[in-house]
Amino acid sequence: MRPRKLAGQIAGILVLSAGMFAAPSGAQQSLVHILSPSAGTVARPGQTITVAVAADASVEKLALIGQRPLGVGRILAGGAPGIMARGQGQSLPIQFQVRIPADAQPGTYRVTAMGRVSGGEVESEAVTIDVEKSEEPVRIWAEPALIHFVKVGDEIPVRVLGAFADGSNGELTKSSKTAFTSADPRVATVSASGMVTAVGPGKTTIEARTPTSDYSIPVRVP
Predict the structure, then answer these.
(1) CATH class of 139-221
(2) In what order do the strands lie in the sheet with 48-55?
(3) For domain 3-131, which architecture applies?
(4) In whole numbers, what is the pLDDT of the chain averaged over residues?
(5) Are strands 107-117 and 169-171 parallel, antiparallel or unpaired?
(6) Could you tell me which residues come within 8 angstroms of residue 99 by beta carbon, excluding any fewer than 6 positions away?
(7) Which pLDDT belongs to residue 4?
């Protein structure tokens, strides 16, 4: 495919996807849905995954959109080579390939099938892909390493980073393997995503844990 034509198709997909992240209606899901992989499937950075999409024959310009940094899927089977296809009916799914960038940070990313019918746009229910490194970090640390709140009610996000045996570093904040706990929720709480909230005066620690390492962050609330 010529680069200029491909760029135009991608631009069209981006226009199509704009404003299409509301929960899909039952009618939309009956026209297009993702058959595989199942939600929560684990994949590795650098890996290519295959996504099977079933779409009604009325669906035109069907595309697969991955949450950044996954990008746009390419057709593997069931349609002409490229990034957009036409629905072939529920019994004839179209297979897309999505390559996970080698530098993708661990975390869950949404993949959604989108298309057009005569009445407008349709989209599938999103499927999440859990991107995780195959190896565990040899040590982890957090930023900030110390939290000193100004007042109750303030919030500060925590980032967890890890060092690996091959000498590389990477962020682990959104990894499904990273867990946060507060030693004293009466002083400060922490969400699953690492957002720390000051609750009451005192001192405590926030613990960040992975399967092989842990790190303590001192917290003070005046």
Answers:
(1) mainly beta
(2) 32-36, 48-55, 89-99, 74-77
(3) Sandwich (2.60)
(4) 90
(5) unpaired
(6) 46, 47, 48, 71
(7) 53
